[in-house]
Amino acid sequence: MIEQNQKNLRKQVAPYEKSNLRASIWQIINTLVPFCLLWVLAYQSLHISYLLTLGISVLAAGFLVRTFIIFHDCCHHSFFKNRKANMILGTITGILTVFPYHQWQHDHSVHHATSSNLDKRGTGDIWVLTVEEYLAASIWERLKYRLYRNPLIMFGLGPIYVFLLKNRFNRKGARMNERINTYITNAGIVAVTAILCLTLGWEQFLLVQAPIFLISGTLGIWLFYVQHTFEDSYFEEDKHWEYVKAAVEGSSFYKLPKVLQWLTGNIGYHHVHHLSPRVPNYKLEEVHNNTLPLQNVPTVTLATSLSSLKFRLWDEHAKKFVGFKEIKVLLKNQKKFLRPEKV
User: Fold this and answer.
1) What is the pTM of this model?
2) How many Cβ atoms sit within 10 Å of the Cβ of residue 178?
3) What is the pLDDT of residue 142?
């Protein structure tokens, strides 16, 4: 019965798995044109006030996040019907967002196929340990995990490491087309940076690009984090793992104000996206509104999403995320048990 309901749910979503050429082209125009204009405006504002530059950079960062959503859809072959068109636009937007198209496509596909599967973690996801794994880990491993989950490191240093460093290198075992695409992306990034530095000056380039990059990078990681890290999420071992449940229960509906929803390309409807990655971003809200079972999913708001910062470990027994404070008693008991008794 459950299996039949899951099949019916996927059938209800299937009609939306077709891109609309006019909608896709309009999204390119209303995203890339404003981003470029805001970038020029931010540069021009340097002669007036850097505070004004920072304000404009915040808006530009929002449009860069929206540009990434286009890149993201291209990786799923959902932005255009033609695969080659998706690859070309994906590579171009990948240069703007510093993401290699084929490399990220591979990792993100693995993420979709293994999301919330405790036995298949490690590719395209956020590092999550269970309570039992954390208790069994060495002090060094615990320290690494605590540092990794620290908000300052995850949302501050995270974008710098992942976007600027990690993305510049091919993964082990990558095929030739993937390697070439990474080289093309890197060359494109260098070329655009060099042209802007030579024409505008490297100091001016950094004063404009650095805040745009850091703000958009932080927002990107935050969106990914909050859409998979909420209290009553879904994680199961492989033998009990179900794709539809992982999509609907393991991905949140991040209900954002309309302006932020637009800037983030409807990615807040993450449960819909994980259920069917072939649905273009501009149809996600429509799927949610027209599919009743998808409206009864974990919902996170802008205010309640802040509580996700305290969720650090997955409790397999309670089936929910917990924080480090909640396992202090277990750690104390563990130390007491391991400490040799005095004679």
Assistant:
1) 0.93
2) 19
3) 94
